[in-house]
Amino acid sequence: MRRAIAELAREGSVSVEQGRGTFVESGPMLEYAIGTRTRLHRNLNSQGIEVTGALLGAEITPASERVARALGLLPGAPVQKSRRITYADTLPINIGTGYRCAKRFPDFVTRRDLIGSVTETYKSYGITDYLRAETTLHSRLARPEEAKLLRQHPQTPVIVIRAIDQSLDGTALSFSEVIWSALRVKFTMTNERD
To answer: What is the CA radius of gyration of the chain?
Structure first.
């Protein structure tokens, strides 16, 4: 019985939560398009999926070399770092960490929580449109904390997507690293602008 439950957990059919029990994880594989205008809500709402999320933490921190390079800043420049979990119809699908210049977007996290979407939050700063400048992805096994937050077996894969978004004039707006449940979402790369 234990082996059967463990195999179902590895397949993503059930989640085993220590001290709580075993729960059936049903739902169709979500489609997510990555292109020049990648938008979370538009991707999932068009499939009839309700998108919600929760802030896991936020802080102002010095930019690492990787973050500084992505944002066009000097290493050590202050950046606002935020970490969020996203749900599709109450099922966790990703955990993301985003970085933005703290001088340009000093209260981005607060506004984002009030407004509810990144696109609409950018509009509150006068940025009416933005583009995906770069996307890289790779897969690996979920780390224990990720597996717990995503309610999946630790021996199942996640897809790690790193992205840079920029304004239409080419100025970097954000650098993000998002850990997606590979059992729940499949990605399509597209060149379409919308």
So the answer is: 17
Please report, for residues 61, 66, 73, 115, 174, the alpha-carbon distance to residue 69 in angstroms, rounded to integers and kept in the order given.
15, 5, 6, 29, 11
Give per-residue pLDDT as tens, 76-103. Answer: 999 999 999 999 998 999 999 999 999 9
User: Which residues, other chains included, contact 110 with Cβ-Cβ below 8 Å and sequence gap of 6+?
Assistant: none
User: Which residues neighbour 3 within 8 Å (Cβ) at sequence distance 6 or greater?
Assistant: none
pLDDT value of position 155: 85
The CATH code that applies to domain 2-189 is: 3.40.1410.10
- 70, 129, 176, 185 from 143: Cα distances, Å: 25, 35, 18, 18
**For the purposes of burial, counting CB atoms within 10 Å of the CB of 91, is it exposed (0-12), middle (13-18) or buried (19 or more)?**
middle
φ, ψ for residue 53, nearest 5 deg: -165, 175
pLDDT, one tens digit per residue, over 36-57 is 888 887 878 787 889 899 999 9
